[in-house]
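Exercise 7. Given the encoded structure of a 453-residue chain, write a plausible sequence.
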């Protein structure tokens, strides 16, 4: 009688295959005692039979069984073969129709050719499923307890930390610097490019992209906030890389649809989308004339106004540096209204508690769906306002960052990307390019109207 061997183990993170190898040895011995030659082997390593995921080895085994490629199936135990009643019924249909005998090392024989045997198989399947469900309940309860205690937990080592939750250099410093830089106006794309230039990769070996850097920066883990089932449940016990205010600010800043372009993409020229058309008030865009070495700015929507790019940019940069050198801008930057950050966090926590309370009342049947939607919409609107305020509190002024260079402001300006220069210009002034008078040639500074903020 031709025999096939099926082996499976639910968890083998290192994929060493030792568990299925032990099962195979015991199955081989059973086949040998019965005098059955083994003609096929099927295995599913590191794959549960309970979750519903497709098991390639099991599927191949059923296909071969239906084709009559073997007469007996040997496995270590019935719970290695199936834990789902759906899988069992498929097995019964095929094994019964093909007359396949099923032998197990530890669970006895399965005779699926009669009602008593099928009943026993179903009972064993129900017991195995109950064991899996009970195990899942224990694990969920343990995870909830660990989350409530703020314990570190992760399946894979996150960037910036060791596997056990200690900050890991230089990754930790890169995260801290990126959080500050993005709130100071640096684009996420530029951060990703700078990280790639270091030669480091993500913990799974992938090169950094703006998408995964963005996801990393808004991850609550870096503010030592414990997440369970996608929800922040409280503070963690590990060392944060950024404070909670910075985290909330990043989430609001990077999540604002109005800022998606400025946080994700970089301007290559300082006036793109910044300079305004002197005729219609629309923004100017960068363009290239017939001569690719000559660049220009033009009215984006109507081409009302056109101006050479290099002299306009040089003039605007001169005005910026002059303004920073001879005004009391330090005092102006420090004169803003002071914000009670702790109070904002308390208000946000109160709104979140009310959202949770609404969900609980709906689950209990105290309120209906329309009441839940109305109350949720109002509270989420309040939450959005609080997050926007936190974002502004956390955002660092690119002008203030530049002034931190002291007497070396001009040298620092030269090292900035066009994207950051553009943000500084937007913070300091409104630049409007006026139409050129008839017959004029060359650059005329009078065409550049500046209104200081």
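Solution.
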């Amino acid at each position: 009688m031709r025999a096939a061997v099926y082996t499976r183990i639910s968890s083998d993170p290192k994929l060493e295959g030792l568990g299925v190898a032990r099962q195979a040895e015991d199955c081989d011995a059973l086949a040998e005692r019965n005098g059955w030659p083994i003609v096929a082997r099927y295995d599913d390593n590191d794959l549960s039979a309970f979750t519903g995921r497709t098991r390639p080895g099991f599927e191949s085994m059923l296909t071969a069984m239906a084709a009559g490629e073997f007469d007996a199936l040997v496995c270590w135990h019935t719970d290695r073969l199936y834990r789902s009643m759906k899988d069992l019924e498929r097995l019964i249909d095929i094994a019964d129709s093909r007359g396949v005998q099923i032998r197990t090392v530890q669970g006895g024989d399965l005779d699926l050719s009669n009602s008593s045997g099928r009943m026993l198989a179903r009972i064993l399947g129900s017991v195995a499923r109950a064991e899996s469900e009970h195990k899942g309940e224990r694990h969920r309860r343990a995870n909830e307890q660990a989350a409530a205690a703020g314990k570190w937990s992760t399946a894979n080592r996150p960037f910036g930390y060791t596997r056990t939750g200690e900050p890991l250099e230089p990754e930790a410093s890169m995260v801290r610097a990126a959080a500050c830089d993005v709130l100071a106006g640096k684009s996420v794309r530029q951060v990703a490019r700078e990280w790639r230039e270091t030669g480091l990769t993500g913990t799974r070996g992938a090169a950094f992209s703006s998408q995964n850097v963005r996801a990393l920066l808004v991850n609550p883990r870096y503010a030592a906030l414990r997440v369970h089932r996608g929800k922040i449940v409280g503070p963690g016990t590990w060392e944060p890389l950024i404070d909670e205010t910075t985290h909330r600010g990043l989430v609001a800043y990077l999540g604002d649809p109005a800022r998606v372009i400025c946080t994700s993409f970089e301007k290559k020229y300082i006036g793109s989308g910044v300079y305004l058309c002197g005729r219609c008030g629309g923004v100017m865009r960068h363009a290239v004339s017939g001569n690719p070495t000559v660049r220009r700015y033009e009215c984006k929507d109507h081409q009302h106004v056109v101006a050479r790019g290099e002299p306009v940019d040089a003039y605007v940069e001169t005005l910026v540096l002059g303004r920073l050198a001879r005004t009391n801008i330090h005092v102006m930057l420090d004169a803003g209204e002071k914000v009670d950050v702790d109070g904002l966090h308390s208000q946000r926590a109160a709104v979140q508690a009310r959202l949770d309370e609404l969900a609980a009342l709906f689950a209990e049947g105290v309120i209906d769906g329309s009441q839940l939607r109305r109350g949720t919409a109002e509270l989420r609107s309040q939450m959005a306002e609080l997050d926007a305020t936190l974002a502004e509190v956390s955002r660092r002024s690119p002008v203030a960052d530049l002034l931190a260079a002291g007497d070396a402001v001009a040298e620092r300006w030269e090292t900035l990307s066009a994207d950051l220069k553009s943000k500084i210009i937007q913070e300091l002034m409104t630049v409007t390019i006026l139409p050129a008078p008839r017959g004029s040639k060359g650059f005329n500074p009078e065409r550049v109207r500046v209104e200081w903020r």
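Remark. The mean pLDDT is 81. Students should compare their own answers with the one above.
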